[in-house]
C-alpha cells in the first residue's frame, strides 16, 4: 500500500497515515481517495446491478409453482414427530418434565390437524375414510386458483391423537410417534406389490395404501419392542393415495400430509431399543447413504424411575 | 600442479616475504627439510597429522535433510500445517462428543498431504537443478590452457620462474610457484611452504565462501509475496474468527471457518508452479548456452542493471587475428570475423607478394595434422598466439602454407627472444633459377626499422629516407592507437656470390647480414570482438543495462575493443579525449561532460570508495583496464552501492569472490576454472557475451510471466474466500467446500499457471529499464488490487450467480437461503422445507450442497479459463500477442476443463471429495 516512500523508515508511519505537508492520508490526497472511492462505488454498483439482473433473469426461468428439477429431493424421506436430536426419545414415565418437550412438539404439529382448522369448505375437501385413488387437481399453475386439500381427521390417530390423552401415551410409558412422508410436488407414491411386504401389513392390505411398518432395528431387540399399534386414516396403517400428488405451497398452502401414528405399548424399560420404520411403495426406495429416505430409525430409552 | 606457498593479504605477507627472501639453506633449516632428500617420512607424517592433506576444504554443504525440512515448513506450508492441526484438533473434539464426523479428519490429512507433496516436489526440483550442474562439470573437458598462473591471476601469458626474489608481492615474485597452477615447460625443484587451505588459492577459496550468499531478488520477492498473502490470510481469518465468535457461533465452528479462510487464501500450488516455471526457463536457457546453477538466478539476470564483463573471450573471440596491414604507404584492413574464408583487401601489389612470403616463411607455427576438413579458423595450431594468427591469415589468402614452406626450405633460424625482439630465418627460394638465399625477419616494428636501409614501395626497393620513416611512424602510431599488436616485416636476398649454395649459416656467430635490410610492411593483430557482441551491447543499452568492461589488458586495447563493440559509443568521449580535442590539460576538463571513462587499475588502487562511486554515477560508459582480479570485487561492491543488480563474468580462481559478491556471478564454461564455476550462479557454455543478453531476456520474461501466474492464481482466491465470508455473515448453505478449493488450487489451476511460463515475451521486454529492486515488486499494489478487488470480485459474483441458480432450480429460491445455516446443517431435521413446500432430508440437503460446491467449482474453473486469456498479456493487446502462439496455454485450458469433467462426472460418487455429477 505504501507508495515506496513510506517504507523509508519505520518512524515515518505516522507521516504515512497523515502527511500534513502534502495533505495525504495513507499516501494519497483526498482527491485521489475520492476518485478511487468513486471508481469502486461505480464499479461495484455495476457489478451488483449485473448480479441482481442475472438473478432476476434466472428467476424468470423458474416457475413459481413447481421447481425445475427434483432429482435431489426425490425419492422422499420419511420422518417422525416429535423431532429429536440424535433421533433418541428418552424419558421417565413418572416424570412429566422429562417428556414435556416431546408432548409440546406433538401438540404443535397436530394443531393444524384439529377439526376446527379444517372447517372451511372452500379449502378442504372430504376425501373419505378409506384409501382411494390419487386426486389429480389439474395443471401446476394458478389458472384455476388455489387447489383444494383433503381433510385429515385427527381422531383417526385415536390413542395418539392427543384428544383423549394429552400426553400421547408418554405418561404410561407407551410413547406415540407420528410418521409422515416428506412432501414432494407432483410425487405419486405407488402402492407396493403384494409379495414383497411383511406379513403383518398384508393383514390390512389396500391397493391405495402406502403402508408403514416399524420393527426392531437389530434382530436381538425383536423381543424388546413389544406390541406396536398403528393408527391411520380409517384405521389403515398407512397413507392413502388420495392425498397425492402435492401441489405445492402456493396452490395448497394448507395442505395436510397424511399421518400414521405408531404407539409402542410394551417397550422394555431401561434399555436402548432401536426401532426402524419404513414406508412401503414401488417408488419408495431406501439408501445406505441417506438413512431417512423412505425409512428412519429412532432409539427409545424409557427409564422406569 | 605445484604445491604452494602461503597466504595473501597484508598480515601474512611478511612471513611469506621472509620465505621468498630466505636463501636455500635458510629455507631448509626453517622447514626441516633438504633439497635433495625431502622430508623424512616420519616428519612428513607429523606434518600431515598437523595440517591435514594438501587439499582444499570443500565448502560446507547443507545436509539434505535440512534442505528437505526447509521445504516442508517454508512459505505457506506452515500456514497449512496450522490448518491441518486445527482440523485434527476439531476432529478429536468432535469425535469425543459425537460419533461420525470424519470430514475434519479427511481435511487435515489432505492439507498435510498437500504440504508434504509440494515440499517433496520443490525439493526434487531443486535437487534436479543441482544435478544438472554436477554432470556438467564432468562433461566439459578440462582445457586448461598450457599456461601457468591463469587460474590464479587470470593472466594468460606464461610466466617464468627462477630462484631470484623479484617482487615484494608474493603473487608477483618469481621464486614462488602456486598450488593449482600448471607447469608448462621446464623443470624446477622447490620446497613446499604451505598446503591446503593455507595456500593462496585456499585463501581465495575461503574468501569466496566467506562472501555471504546474498538472497536472490526473486527469493526476496517471493518472500515478500508469501508475507503479503499470509498476512491477508491470517488477518481475514482472525477477523472472521472474532466476528463468528461474536455472532455466537461455537468456538469449534469458528475454528473450522478459520481453516477454510486460510485454505481459501493460500495459493497452495503457487510455489510449486514458480519452481516449475523457473526450471523450465533454466532448461530453455541451457539450450541457449546459459547453464543456471541456482534456479532463482534465472530471474536475477532479468533484473540486472549493470553487467561487469570480462573482455578476453567474452567480448572478444579470444584469438589473435590480423586486423590491419600497412604496405606501399597505405593501411589495409583485414576481415576479422569468426568464419572468414577470403580476405577482401587489394592483393595485386608486388609488395604484398613479398610481404606474404615473409609472413609465411618467418613463422614457426604449424597446424596439427589431420584437420584438413576443418575450416581454417577452427584448426588447432601449435605455436603462440601471434604466430597462429599469422599462419591462419596466410593460409586463408595463399592456401597450403606448409607446401609453400616445403618449397622454400629453411636453412637457418633464430627464434624470437625478449632481448633481440625479432625472429629470423633463411630460406632457399622456390625459383630453381634463383640460387640466392632469402633472409626474412619479423619483430617489433621499431627494431626492424632500425635494421633496414631501404623500403619496398610497389615492389621496388627505395631508400628509407626521413619522409618514408615518418610515414612508417604515422602508420605505426595509428595501428598502435587502435590497441593492436603491430609487427614489422623485412627481408633481404643474400647475394649469391657471398653466400653460395653450400654456405653454412651459423646462427650463433651470425655469419650473415642482419642490417641494411629491406623493410616490406607492417601487420597488426588484435583479439577481435565477437561478431554478435555489438548487437548484444546495443540491446543492453536499449534495455537500460549498463555494460562495464573490466579487463587486465592495456587501456588502449581495452578502449579500442570497447569502442568497436559499442560499450563506448561512437560519439562519446573520455576526459582525455576532450582534453586532446580542446588542447587543454586533463585537469581543466569538466568531468561531467565526459560520458565515457577509461579507468586504469593503478588509479583505481588509490581511489577512495567515494571517488569510485562518483565515477560509476557520472559516467555511463566505463572501461576498467589493467585491473587485477581482486579489484573486480571493489568494482562490484561499488556498483551495488548504487543500488544496482550486478552481473559479473569471470573465469579465474581470483574472480570467485567477485562472482560470489555479485548478484549474479557468471562463469565461463570453456575458459573458466572450477573454482569460478563453483562460485558462480550461472555458467556460459560458449563464453559469449551475447548469451548473457539472451539470459537477460529470459530473466525478464520469467519475471513477467511469474507476475502473470501470480495474478492468475490470486484472482480465484477471492472467489474462494467470498463464499466463506458470506456463509458466515448471511448464514447461507456453504457454497464451496475446503476440499473443493484444494482441487481448484492443486488440480485445475496448476497446468494453466505453469502454461503461463511458456508465454512469449511482449514486444517491449528489451526496451524497458531493468526493474528497480525496491519499487518494482513481483506482487505490488496494482497487481493485488486488480486481482483481488476487481477480477476476483467479478469472479465471485459469477460463481454466486451459478450457486443461486443451482439452488433455485432445485427448489431453494435465493430469498429462502438467507439465514438457514443452523437448521440446514442440523442432521436431526429431515423435513427441511424449501420455497415450494417440499421437504428435504439432511442427506438430500448435503447432496444438494455438494452439487452447489461442484457448480461453484465449475464456475470458477470456467472463469479461470477467461482469466487465463486475460493474463496472457500485460502490455500488448491480446491480438498482438496472438491467441495461438503459446500452445501450452491451450493445453492448460483443455486440461483444466478435462480435470473438471473428471472430477464432476468421474469422481461424482466418492463421498469424501464432495463432488456430484452436474446435469
UniProtKB/TrEMBL annotation, chain A:
* Segments passing through the bilayer: 37-62
Q: Which InterPro entries match?
A: Na/K_ATPase_sub_beta, Na/K_ATPase_sub_beta_sf
Give the top-rank taxon of the lineage listed in the UniProt record for this protein.
Answer: Eukaryota
- Species: Zonotrichia albicollis
- Name the UniProt key words of this record, in alphabetical order: Cell membrane, Disulfide bond, Glycoprotein, Ion transport, Membrane, Potassium, Potassium transport, Signal-anchor, Sodium, Sodium transport, Sodium/potassium transport, Transmembrane, Transmembrane helix, Transport
What topology in the membrane does the UniProt record assign? Answer: Single-pass type II membrane protein
Please classify the protein's predominant subcellular localization into one broad category: membrane
Cellular compartments annotated: Cell membrane; Membrane
Q: Which family does it belong to?
A: Belongs to the X(+)/potassium ATPases subunit beta family.
A GO CC annotation recorded here is: sodium:potassium-exchanging ATPase complex
User: Which Pfam families does the protein's record reference?
Assistant: Na_K-ATPase
Which gene is this protein's source? ATP1B1
Q: What does this protein do?
A: This is the non-catalytic component of the active enzyme, which catalyzes the hydrolysis of ATP coupled with the exchange of Na(+) and K(+) ions across the plasma membrane.
User: Highest lineage ranks of the organism?
Assistant: Eukaryota, Metazoa, Chordata, Craniata, Vertebrata
Which processes are annotated in GO (biological process)? intracellular potassium ion homeostasis; intracellular sodium ion homeostasis; potassium ion import across plasma membrane; sodium ion export across plasma membrane
Q: What is this protein called?
A: Sodium/potassium-transporting ATPase subunit beta
What GO molecular function terms would the record report?
ATPase activator activity
TrEMBL record, chain B:
Q: Which residues form the Cation-transporting P-type ATPase N-terminal domain?
A: 18-92
Localization per Swiss-Prot or TrEMBL: Cell membrane; Membrane
A GO biological-process term: proton transmembrane transport
Give Gene Ontology CC terms: plasma membrane
Sorted alphabetically, which Gene3D superfamilies does this protein's record hold? Calcium-transporting ATPase, cytoplasmic domain N, Calcium-transporting ATPase, cytoplasmic transduction domain A, Calcium-transporting ATPase, transmembrane domain, HAD superfamily/HAD-like
- Which Pfam families does the UniProt entry name for this protein? Cation_ATPase, Cation_ATPase_C, Cation_ATPase_N, E1-E2_ATPase, Hydrolase_3
Q: Topology with regard to the membrane?
A: Multi-pass membrane protein
Q: Which domain of life does the UniProt lineage start with?
A: Eukaryota
GO molecular function: any one?
metal ion binding
Q: Which SMART domains match?
A: Cation_ATPase_N (SM00831)
Transmembrane residues, as ranges? 72-93, 105-124, 225-243, 255-280, 724-744, 783-806, 850-869, 889-908
Task: Identify the keywords attached in UniProt to this record, alphabetized.
Answer: ATP-binding, Hydrogen ion transport, Ion transport, Magnesium, Membrane, Metal-binding, Nucleotide-binding, Phosphoprotein, Potassium, Potassium transport, Translocase, Transmembrane, Transmembrane helix, Transport
UniProt family annotation = Belongs to the cation transport ATPase (P-type) (TC 3.A.3) family. Type IIC subfamily.
In Swiss-Prot or TrEMBL terms, this protein is called: Sodium/potassium-transporting ATPase subunit alpha
Q: Species name for this entry?
A: Zonotrichia albicollis (White-throated sparrow)
Amino acid at each position: 500500500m505504501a507508495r515506496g516512500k513510506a517504507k523509508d523508515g519505520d518512524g515515518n508511519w505516522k507521516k504515512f497515515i497523515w502527511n500534513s505537508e502534502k495533505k495525504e492520508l495513507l499516501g494519497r490526497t483526498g482527491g485521489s481517495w475520492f476518485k478511487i472511492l468513486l471508481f469502486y462505488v461505480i464499479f461495484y454498483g455495476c457489478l451488483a446491478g449485473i448480479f441482481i439482473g442475472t438473478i432476476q433473469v434466472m428467476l424468470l426461468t423458474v416457475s413459481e409453482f413447481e421447481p425445475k428439477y427434483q432429482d435431489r429431493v426425490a425419492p422422499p424421506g420419511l420422518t417422525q414427530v416429535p423431532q429429536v436430536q440424535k433421533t433418541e426419545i428418552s424419558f421417565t414415565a413418572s416424570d412429566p418434565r422429562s417428556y414435556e418437550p416431546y408432548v409440546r412438539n406433538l401438540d404443535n404439529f397436530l394443531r393444524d390437524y384439529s377439526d376446527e382448522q379444517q372447517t372451511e369448505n372452500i379449502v378442504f375437501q372430504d376425501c373419505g375414510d378409506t384409501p382411494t385413488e390419487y386426486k389429480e387437481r389439474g395443471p401446476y399453475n394458478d389458472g384455476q386458483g388455489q387447489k383444494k386439500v383433503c381433510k385429515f381427521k385427527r381422531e383417526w390417530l385415536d390413542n395418539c391423537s392427543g384428544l383423549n390423552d394429552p400426553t400421547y401415551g408418554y405418561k404410561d410409558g407407551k410413547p406415540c410417534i407420528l410418521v409422515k412422508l416428506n412432501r414432494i410436488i407432483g410425487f405419486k407414491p405407488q402402492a407396493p406389490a403384494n409379495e414383497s411386504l411383511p406379513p403383518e401389513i398384508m393383514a390390512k392390505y389396500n391397493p391405495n395404501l402406502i403402508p408403514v411398518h416399524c420393527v426392531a432395528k437389530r434382530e436381538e431387540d425383536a423381543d424388546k419392542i413389544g406390541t406396536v399399534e398403528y393408527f391411520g386414516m380409517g384405521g389403515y396403517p398407512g397413507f392413502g393415495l388420495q392425498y397425492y400428488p402435492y401441489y405445492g405451497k402456493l396452490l395448497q398452502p394448507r395442505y395436510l400430509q397424511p399421518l400414521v401414528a405408531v404407539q409402542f405399548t410394551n417397550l422394555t424399560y431401561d434399555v436402548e431399543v432401536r426401532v426402524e420404520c419404513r414406508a412401503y411403495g414401488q417408488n419408495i426406495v431406501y439408501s445406505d447413504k441417506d438413512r431417512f429416505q423412505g425409512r428412519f430409525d429412532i432409539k427409545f430409552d424409557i427409564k422406569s424411575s | 600442479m605445484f604445491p604452494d606457498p602461503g597466504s595473501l593479504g597484508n598480515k601474512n605477507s611478511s612471513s611469506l616475504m621472509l620465505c621468498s627472501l630466505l636463501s636455500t639453506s635458510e629455507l631448509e633449516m626453517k622447514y626441516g627439510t633438504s633439497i635433495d632428500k625431502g622430508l623424512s617420512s616420519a616428519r612428513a607424517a607429523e606434518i600431515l597429522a598437523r595440517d591435514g592433506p594438501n587439499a582444499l576444504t570443500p565448502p560446507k554443504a547443507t545436509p539434505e535433510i535440512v534442505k528437505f525440512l526447509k521445504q516442508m515448513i517454508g512459505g505457506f506450508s506452515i500456514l497449512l500445517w496450522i490448518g491441518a492441526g486445527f482440523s485434527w484438533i476439531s476432529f478429536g473434539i468432535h469425535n469425543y462428543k459425537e460419533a461420525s464426523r470424519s470430514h475434519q479428519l479427511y481435511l487435515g490429512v489432505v492439507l498435510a498431504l498437500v504440504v508434504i507433496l509440494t515440499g517433496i516436489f520443490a525439493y526434487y526440483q531443486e535437487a534436479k537443478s543441482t544435478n544438472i550442474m554436477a554432470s556438467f562439470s564432468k562433461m566439459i573437458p578440462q582445457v586448461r590452457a598450457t599456461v601457468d598462473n591463469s587460474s590464479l591471476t587470470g593472466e594468460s601469458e606464461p610466466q617464468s620462474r627462477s630462484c631470484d626474489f623479484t617482487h615484494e608481492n608474493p603473487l608477483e615474485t618469481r621464486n614462488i610457484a602456486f598450488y593449482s597452477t600448471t607447469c608448462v615447460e621446464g623443470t624446477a625443484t622447490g620446497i613446499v611452504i604451505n598446503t591446503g587451505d593455507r595456500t593462496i588459492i585456499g585463501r581465495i577459496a575461503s574468501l569466496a565462501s566467506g562472501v555471504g550468499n546474498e538472497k536472490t531478488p526473486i527469493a526476496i520477492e517471493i518472500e515478500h509475496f508469501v508475507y503479503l498473502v499470509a498476512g491477508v490470510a491470517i488477518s481475514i481469518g482472525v477477523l472472521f474468527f472474532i466476528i463468528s465468535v461474536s455472532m455466537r457461533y461455537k468456538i469449534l465452528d469458528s475454528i473450522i471457518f478459520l481453516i477454510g479462510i486460510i485454505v481459501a487464501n493460500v495459493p497452495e500450488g503457487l510455489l510449486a508452479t514458480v519452481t516449475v516455471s523457473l526450471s523450465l526457463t533454466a532448461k530453455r536457457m541451457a539450450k541457449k548456452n546459459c547453464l543456471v546453477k541456482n534456479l532463482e538466478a534465472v530471474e536475477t539476470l532479468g533484473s540486472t542493471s549493470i553487467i561487469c564483463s570480462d573482455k578476453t573471450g567474452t567480448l572478444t573471440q579470444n584469438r589473435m587475428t590480423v586486423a590491419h596491414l600497412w604496405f606501399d604507404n597505405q593501411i589495409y584492413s583485414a576481415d576479422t570475423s569468426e568464419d572468414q574464408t577470403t580476405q577482401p583487401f587489394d592483393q595485386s601489389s608486388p609488395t604484398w607478394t613479398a610481404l606474404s612470403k615473409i609472413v609465411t616463411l618467418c613463422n614457426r607455427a604449424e597446424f596439427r595434422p589431420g584437420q584438413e576438413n576443418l575450416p581454417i579458423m577452427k584448426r588447432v595450431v601449435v605455436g603462440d598466439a601471434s604466430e597462429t594468427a599469422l599462419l591462419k591469415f596466410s593460409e586463408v589468402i595463399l592456401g597450403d602454407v606448409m607446401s609453400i614452406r616445403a618449397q622454400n626450405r629453411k636453412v637457418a633460424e633464430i627464434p624470437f627472444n625478449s632481448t633481440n625482439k625479432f625472429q629470423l630465418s633463411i630460406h632457399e627460394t622456390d625459383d630453381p633459377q634463383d640460387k640466392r638465399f632469402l633472409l626474412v625477419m619479423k619483430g617489433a616494428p621499431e627494431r626492424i626499422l632500425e635494421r633496414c636501409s631501404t623500403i619496398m614501395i610497389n615492389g621496388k626497393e627505395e631508400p628509407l629516407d626521413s619522409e618514408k620513416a615518418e610515414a612508417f611512424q604515422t602508420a605505426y602510431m595509428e595501428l598502435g592507437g587502435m590497441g593492436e599488436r603491430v609487427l614489422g616485416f623485412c627481408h633481404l636476398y643474400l647475394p649469391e656470390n657471398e653466400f653460395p649454395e653450400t654456405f653454412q649459416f651459423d646462427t650463433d656467430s651470425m655469419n650473415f647480414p642482419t642490417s641494411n635490410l629491406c623493410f616490406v610492411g607492417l601487420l597488426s593483430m588484435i583479439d577481435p570482438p565477437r561478431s554478435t557482441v555489438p548487437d548484444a551491447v546495443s540491446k543492453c543499452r536499449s534495455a537500460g543495462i549498463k555494460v562495464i568492461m573490466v579487463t587486465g589488458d592495456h587501456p588502449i586495447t581495452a578502449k579500442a575493443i570497447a569502442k568497436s563493440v559499442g560499450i563506448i559509443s561512437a560519439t562519446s568521449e573520455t576526459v582525455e579525449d576532450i582534453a586532446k580535442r580542446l588542447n587543454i590539460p586533463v585537469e581543466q576538463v569538466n568531468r561531467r561532460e565526459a560520458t565515457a571513462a577509461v579507468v586504469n587499475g593503478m588509479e583505481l588502487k588509490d581511489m577512495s570508495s567515494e571517488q569510485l562511486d562518483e565515477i560509476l554515477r557520472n559516467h555511463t560508459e566505463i572501461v576498467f583496464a589493467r585491473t587485477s582480479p581482486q579489484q573486480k570485487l571493489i568494482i562490484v561492491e561499488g556498483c551495488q552501492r548504487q543500488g544496482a543488480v550486478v552481473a559479473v563474468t569471470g573465469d579465474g580462481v581470483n574472480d570467485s569472490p567477485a562472482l560470489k559478491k555479485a548478484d549474479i556471478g557468471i562463469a565461463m564454461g570453456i575458459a573458466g576454472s572450477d573454482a569460478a564455476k563453483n562460485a558462480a550462479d550461472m555458467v556460459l557454455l560458449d563464453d559469449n557475451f551475447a548469451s548473457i543478453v539472451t539470459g537477460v531476456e529470459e530473466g525478464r520474461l520469467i519475471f513477467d510471466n511469474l507476475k502473470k501466474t501470480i495474478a492468475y492464481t490470486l484472482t480465484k482466491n477471492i472467489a474462494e474466500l467470498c463464499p466463506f465470508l458470506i456463509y458466515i455473515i448471511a448464514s447461507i448453505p456453504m457454497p464451496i467446500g475446503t476440499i473443493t478449493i484444494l482441487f481448484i488450487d492443486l488440480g485445475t489451476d496448476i497446468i494453466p499457471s505453469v502454461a503461463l511460463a511458456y508465454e512469449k515475451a511482449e514486444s517491449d521486454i528489451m526496451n524497458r529499464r531493468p526493474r528497480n529492486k525496491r519499487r518494482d515488486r513481483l506482487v505490488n499494489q496494482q497487481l493485488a488490487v486488480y486481482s483481488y478487488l476487481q477480477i476476483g470480485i467479478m469472479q465471485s459474483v459469477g460463481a454466486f450467480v451459478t450457486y443461486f441458480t443451482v439452488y433455485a432450480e432445485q427448489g431453494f429460491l435465493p430469498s429462502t437461503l438467507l439465514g438457514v445455516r443452523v437448521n440446514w446443517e442440523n442432521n436431526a431435521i429431515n423435513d427441511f422445507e424449501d420455497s415450494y413446500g417440499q421437504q428435504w432430508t439432511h442427506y438430500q440437503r448435503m447432496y444438494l450442497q455438494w452439487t452447489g460446491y461442484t457448480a461453484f467449482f465449475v464456475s470458477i474453473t470456467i472463469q479461470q479459463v477467461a482469466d487465463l486469456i486475460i493474463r496472457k498479456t500485460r502490455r500488448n493487446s491480446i491480438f498482438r500477442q496472438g491467441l495461438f502462439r503459446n500452445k501450452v496455454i491451450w493445453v492448460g485450458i483443455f486440461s483444466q476443463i478435462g480435470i473438471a469433467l473428471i472430477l464432476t462426472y468421474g469422481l461424482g460418487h466418492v463421498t469424501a471429495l464432495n463432488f456430484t455429477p452436474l446435469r
